[in-house]
Specification:
Blueprint: H1 2-25, E1 37-40, H2 57-62, E2 70-74, E3 78-82, H3 87-93, E4 100-104, H4 113-120, E5 126-129, H5 136-148, E6 152-155, H6 160-165, E7 178-179, H7 182-185, H8 189-203, E8 207-210, H9 213-220, E9 222-223, E10 236-240, E11 244-247, H10 255-263, E12 269-271, H11 276-286, E13 291-293, H12 299-304, E14 314-315, H13 320-326, H14 330-360, H15 369-381, E15 386-389, E16 394-397, E17 422-426, E18 428-430, E19 433-434, E20 437-441, H16 448-465, E21 469-470, H17 479-487, E22 498-500, E23 509-514, E24 530-533, E25 536-539, E26 543-546, E27 549-556, E28 567-572, H18 590-607, H19 617-626
Parallel strand pairs: 1-5, 3-4, 5-6, 8-13, 11-12, 13-14
Antiparallel strand pairs: 1-2, 2-3, 7-9, 8-10, 10-11, 15-18, 16-17, 17-20, 18-19, 21-28, 22-23, 24-27, 25-26, 27-28
Helix pairs in contact: 4-5, 14-15, 14-19, 16-17
């Protein structure tokens, strides 16, 4: 991403000019016209959140490097829609800044992309987008809005940003695809495919199209490294009642991966990766059955499956793999717990090391955001089965912490000091699980306001962690628990409260989540789901506070079961101390103090046995101090 940002900084205006020239000259379909507005989203052909370098088109054309956002370029305007996680970052990165308008999603008065286009374009304008890079669920409402307003919305197979990028655009990644053994997965690929077929029978479909990369990896018990931080690879899978079709670059498959597929009861028909649309077009034209393709898959593949044709038979719910993957089996649950315990060792060693470096001032070079992040990765690399980070570490001092997804660069690298908050949001990919944890610390004396904010963030995290709720409740209903203490004094945060987490897969995993906005495909919280718990507070240009744990949904013991409906709660698997001397005890209830003391006792009990030996004395001493019980 750094390379893209550097290129944007050098010639952002020139790239917009070149794109506009192309928009004028390309002739779209039967309209005989050029393109009046071009939409550039954040996704690849699999609608991934994180992207390979070659697919970072919106970052290339705008300079904005966040993971979520949509750019719309017209002949005289350039606009970027993104959410509250990225407002501050976008204002710093959009290039050139005077050419771009930031559209703040979720803020009252901000129009949707469709409504802005419908009301701001000249009559009968042509709006275009790459149909491979926009989901069917995103395409449909924009199409309906524009057609109703008298405009045209057309698919443009030739990607105009790629033409601007030209020969400098990175090539396709091509890394090895490896086996993920049964000792980590707990279920064979053959068993998972049979569960898919059971769901297909229930829904009356004959073909299942799997396009999400983490679903492909999960289904086949394979892993790769085609996208940084995500152990996935570029491929599609099509499951029928008799066969499995695997669209992949075969030379990337290791012998072990091929053999494991056979051993687990899967002998797929292999096809070139690029031929999935040809196969789907042929099958949709010859098969009498219905095709199951998620509405989150690309509009282009929906067209390949017959969208828009008479008597098109599609089932567009989320795939059965999506929920199957979210509900971890006992082997995966145990693996996730082991991964978080190892991760706790690394984080405790880092926080103890950092505490000493910041406070000792013994003449050594100061620790910075980048050098601290590098040291944390070294501690993680010492742990068994560590593969790499699960995302780019957010190592943020002071005002940088207010940039919710800040990533330090050599130009912004700040010293971790004793007079500002330091926010560290990081995670690891281990063969047995994926981690994500945030701790905010202060090595000096925070202001009364900063202490109150930290305390209210903790109160929100505690309230959600202790929640007892009916089984199958939507995560959206729990969001207020994490915000209530902040809301009481007029504070809030502009991101979701919880996301799902994969098992050695993507660190952000659906379909469930906890947010003020409903997750459209949330099946309801169920035993075995892992979610984050991460309220925060951010004061622009001053500081950021976030506390994040990963928790697994478990059964709760309650004295009553209304209409035999069971209850659920959360069990925390993150085992890293929270800096209790930052808490304003006058704001805490006895129950909250008891919760923290119980949590710290568990952390000490589980982590300290792994910190024995002279080489771990610093970390163990720090751990014992940071887990001391607090009293009012």
């Amino acid at each position: 991403m750094t390379g893209i940002k550097e290129m944007a900084g050098k010639n952002g205006a020139a790239k917009l000019s070149r794109l506009r020239d192309l928009m004028k000259t390309v002739v779209v379909g039967t309209t005989g016209k050029g393109v009046d507005a071009y939409i550039v989203g954040s996704e690849d052909a699999h609608q991934s959140e994180y992207l390979a370098e070659k697919d970072q088109r919106r970052a290339f054309i705008s300079g904005f490097a966040g993971s979520a956002g949509t750019a719309i370029i017209t002949s005289d305007k350039a606009l970027l829609w993104t959410d509250g996680r990225y407002f501050a970052q976008a204002l710093k990165e959009l290039d050139p800044p005077e050419a771009w308008t930031l559209m703040k999603e979720g803020v009252t008065g901000t129009p949707t992309q469709a409504s802005w286009l419908a009301s701001n374009l000249s009559p009968k304008s042509v709006v275009a987008a790459d149909p491979n890079l926009m989901s069917n669920s995103a395409w449909a409402p924009i199409y309906a809005s524009l057609i109703a307003a008298g405009h045209n919305f057309v698919p443009l197979e030739k990607n105009l940003v790629d033409l601007v990028w030209g020969k400098d655009r990175p090539g396709s990644p091509s890394h090895k695809i490896v086996a993920q053994p049964l000792k980590y997965t707990g279920k064979t690929a053959g068993e998972k495919i049979e569960l898919c077929r059971e769901a297909m029978r229930t829904e009356g479909v004959s073909t299942l199209v799997v396009t999400a990369l983490d679903e492909v990896a999960y289904l086949l018990n394979l892993r790769g490294s085609d996208i940084a931080y995500n152990p996935v690879f570029f491929a599609y899978v099509v499951v029928t009642m008799e066969e499995v079709h695997f669209f992949v670059e075969q030379s990337n498959l290791t012998d072990e991966a091929r053999q494991q597929l056979k051993d687990e009861g899967v002998d797929p028909n292999y096809h070139p990766y690029e031929e999935v649309d040809v196969y789907l077009k042929e099958r949709s034209s010859t098969s009498e059955g219905k095709t199951w393709i998620s509405d989150s898959s690309s509009y282009a593949l929906h067209v390949s499956c017959g969208a828009g044709e008479v008597n098109c038979k599609r089932h567009t719910n989320i795939t059965p793999i999506c929920v199957m993957k979210a509900i971890k089996n006992p082997v995966e649950i145990e693996g996730m717990k082991k991964a978080h315990l190892k991760d706790a060792v690394a984080l405790v060693k880092y926080l103890a090391w950092l505490d000493d470096k910041v406070k000792s001032r013994n003449g050594e070079p100061p620790v910075t955001e980048l050098s601290g992040s590098a040291q944390l990765e070294k501690f993680r690399a010492e742990q068994e089965d560590f593969v790499g980070p699960s995302f780019n570490t957010i190592s943020a001092v002071g005002a940088h912490g207010a940039i919710i997804h800040y990533a330090p660069t050599p130009e912004t690298d700040a010293v971790i000091n004793d007079h500002e908050f330091y926010l560290c949001d990081s995670g690891g990919q281990y063969r047995d699980g994926t981690t994500d944890v945030t701790r905010t610390v202060h090595y000096g004396v925070p202001s009364a306001f900063e202490r109150e904010c930290f305390t209210r963030v903790f109160k929100g995290q505690c309230a959600l962690a202790k929640a007892i709720f009916p089984t199958m409740i939507k995560g959206n209903y729990l969001d207020i628990l994490a915000r209530k203490s902040l809301w009481e004094v007029g504070l809030d945060y502009l991101h979701g409260t919880a996301h799902g987490v994969g098992a050695f897969l993507n660190v952000h995993e659906g379909p469930m989540g906890i947010s003020w906005r409903p997750h459209p495909h949330d099946p309801g919280l169920q035993v075995g789901m892992f979610l984050s718990n991460e309220p925060g507070y951010y004061e622009d240009d001053k500081f950021g506070i976030r506390l994040e744990d990963i928790e697994v949904v478990v059964e709760a013991a309650t004295p009553y079961n209304y209409k035999s409906r069971s209850s659920l709660t959360f069990q925390c698997v993150t085992l890293v101390p929270i800096q209790s001397n930052l808490l304003d005890l006058s704001l805490l209830t006895d129950s909250e103090i008891e919760y923290l003391n119980r949590y710290h006792a568990e952390v000490l009990e589980k982590v300290s046995p792994l910190l024995q030996g002279e080489e771990n004395l610093q970390a163990l001493t720090w751990l014992k101090r940071e887990t001391l019980p607090i009293f009012r």
